[in-house]
C-alpha cells in the first residue's frame, strides 16, 4: 500500500540517538508512513542501527548517499518520497506518538494550508525534558514572524508534496544551516504556513558539548537569508546566485553592515550561553560568552576588513 506520509530523516554519524528517533516513528498512532533514512555517508554504526529496524519493518528504508551535506540529502529524499505529504524528523529528535495523526488531520481539514509545524519541548543528552517552546500559530502571525526570524521548527513540519515540487531544489545549497528558513520564506510568498499549538516533538539540545563555531555560522546564514529574501522581493523574478558566498563577504555585498553581522553572531552566542547556563552547564556557558566577546566591535581587526574587501570584489550577484 502506498504510504500517505514520507518521513525524511537525514543521518550523519547519529548512532547515539538514532534508535530512539526511529522508534518514535514506529510508535505513531497513524501507521501509513514510510521512513526514508538518508544516510549521508556515516562512518559510525548508524548503518547497522537502520538496517536492524528495516529488517523487521518494511516501511523503513535506508538510502545510502555520498557525504554531501544535509541539503543534498533532503533534496534526494524529496525526489524519492512516495507519500502525498512529507514530514521531517532529525536523527536525534523524538516525534510524539500522535504527531502525524494531528498534522495530517489538520492539513486535510485545511486545504488552504500547505505546511504545518508545531511546538516542541527540548530534551538533553540524558533524556531529561526541558523548556516548551511555543511558536506563532495562525497564518498572519507566522508570516509576520518569518520576516524577522525562523519561527517554524524544521524537524516538526509536514508539507504537501505537490507544493514542494513547485520550488527548485526545493532546498538551496548555499544557505548552510539555514536552508529551512530560506525555503519557508520562499514558500510564504505563495503558500500558507501555520503551526499547531500542540507540542509535537522533543528537540535534542546537547548543552554539555556546545559548538560555538556552528552557532556563529548559523547566525550568519540566517541573516543572509533575510537579506537575500529582501533583494528577491525587491526584484521580481530574480534569484540569488549560487556563486554568491553567503558568509560575511556575501552579506556585505547585499548591503549588510559588518557591525550588524557581528551583532547577530554575538546575540546568537549569548542566547545559547543563557540556555546552556539554565540547563546547568556553567563552564560551557562561559565558553560561549568568551566566543561572543570576539564579536564585540572593539576587537574587529584590520586583517579581517581587508579580507572582507577582497572577497567583496569577487562577488557578483545575479542580475
From TrEMBL:
GO terms for molecular function: glycosyltransferase activity. Keywords: Glycosyltransferase, Transferase. The keyword Glycosyltransferase applies. It comes from the Bacteria. InterPro entries: Glyco_trans_2-like, Glycosyltransf_2, Nucleotide-diphossugar_trans. It holds the Pfam family Glycos_transf_2. The keyword Transferase applies. Gene3D superfamilies: Spore Coat Polysaccharide Biosynthesis Protein SpsA, Chain A. Residues 6-161 form the Glycosyltransferase 2-like domain. Belongs to the glycosyltransferase 2 family. This is Glycosyltransferase 2-like domain-containing protein.
